[in-house]
Amino acid sequence: MTLEVDTSQVKVAAVERSRVSLRSTLASRVEVIVGGVLVLVAVLIAIIIPMIDPAASTAVGAAPSLVPPGLLNLLGTDQLGRDQLARVAVGYGISLTIAVGAVLLSVVVGGLLGLLAATATSAIDGLIMRILDVVMAFPALLLAIVVVALFGAGTEVLMLAIGITFVPIVARVTRAAALETTRQPYIEAAMARGARRGRVIFRHIAPNSLGPVVVQASILIAIAIMLEASLSFVGLGVQPPTPSLGLMLSTGRDFMVSDPWIVAVPAIAILEIVLGFTLIGDGLQTWLDPKKRAIAR
User: Fold this and answer.
1) How much is the pTM?
2) What domain range is 240 assigned to?
3) Which residues of 129-141 are buried (b: 16+ CB within 10 A; e: fewer)?
4) Which of 36, 152, 204, 281 is most solvent-facing, going by the fewest CB within 10 Å?
């Protein structure tokens, strides 16, 4: 008895899987490229514009007030005659500094906690995760407001406040990735050979758990920018006369009807940079997440 296999159907299925994988790969690359371009534009604006005229963002009366976007003032001026483009540039720099600093803090602290929880005893793991559950029970914005209220407003305090809210998220992602890595045969082989536990953790487990953390960090930067803007909007962020995107939204809301560009400019600036980091995170998720790669294939 012979078993006949329709090879044509097998070939068609293989070709279809290849097409799906190719489309998924191309889509992820496009997302990363588009997101990278959006972020690069924001970074260049934050660097170049203040170098041209460092005082333009705070110079009151340097131009007529409430001038609409035009050749002399590309994004117009605000109610005090300050150039909107210069203020957006400084706002970009502040938002990026706070967001990246907060995420780096959360990655370091949360990453170490996640690694410890994944590689320690079940009692320590349970204790760490319960503490993180308590922190996660508070809404991110509310927790950040509490920290700012305790320590005062300022760039460093905002980094700390936002970073604390992200620590449980990073710790959970790191723990899940580390637990999956510890089940790999090469980790078990290294432990069986008598390798020191610390060496195995930091040389093998930690590097191989970075993929999901990098993806999460990209998305957290976008969230951090929105949190910073929200805190500045309610007066708990960067204080005037230093401009920030959230503060520009707050001070311009009284002119929303008569001079809409006052609000539209910082709103679009926030949308642009948040969209950039979100696209980067989505694209990296397909590249670096093994589960996503498996689906794509």
Assistant:
1) 0.86
2) 44-65+73-296
3) beebeebbeeebb
4) 152
